[in-house]
Amino acid sequence: MLKILGKASSINVRKVLWTCTELHLPFEREDWGSGFRSTLTPDFLALNPNGQVPVLKDDDFILWESNSIIRYLASRYDGLHLYPAEPKMRARVDQWMDWQATDLNRSWSYAFLALVRQSPTHRAAEETAQSIAAWNRNMEILNGQLSATEAFVAGKRFSLADIPIALSVNRWLETPFDHPALPAVSAYLERLFDRPGFAQYCRNGVP
């Protein structure tokens, strides 16, 4: 059975849990990270020298980096409906997954740490405002893409890219600041309500 190391509240762990649900994969999860077992112990660092969750154990195969993990799961366990083999379709999925992990994540980092984590080293009002503005600009890019597809982020069908993107949309909505109206993003979340794992892992059980 697959083993996932990481606390369920982590956005990156939830990518993996949601993917397992979409693929109907049984798994065991162990709590690691802030508030639980330390990821800086020698045992954990031997699995991931970065000291971060999640870590996947698939028998003797160890993998870290959440987007790499979910790509692996879809490739290993009959997930072509999520991660298509056709090169152009796969590239589009990868494009949005990589955008989420780079441009989008970088934009929200300061604002999230300031407004949600209440980090004492993230108290600068100007930097928080700049982070919010950059975050909103990226969400407007996403809104434009969803307006174009009128469905999901990489096209007309739900794909692996929608898992990290939807989790990021949820983080944007749950961070306390004034959010611009993005109708295509709102409609996108409505389309996701019936997905396996969406309520449990993306909306944290909120209908």
What does this protein look like?
It is a single chain. This protein has 207 residues and is an alpha+beta fold. It folds into 2 domains: 2-76, Glutaredoxin, CATH 3.40.30.10; 87-202, Glutathione S-transferase Yfyf (Class Pi), Chain A, domain 2, CATH 1.20.1050.10. It is built from 8 helices and 4 strands. It has helices spanning 11-22, 42-47, 66-76, 87-115, 125-149, 162-174, 183-192, 198-202; strands at residues 2-5, 27-30, 55-58, 61-64. Strands 2-1-3-4 form a 4-stranded mixed β-sheet, covered by helices on one side. Helix 1 runs parallel beside helix 3 (66-76), helix 4 (87-115) runs antiparallel to helix 5 and helix 4 (87-115) runs parallel beside helix 6 (162-174). It is globular. The relative contact order is 0.13. The model has no long low-confidence stretch (mean pLDDT 95).
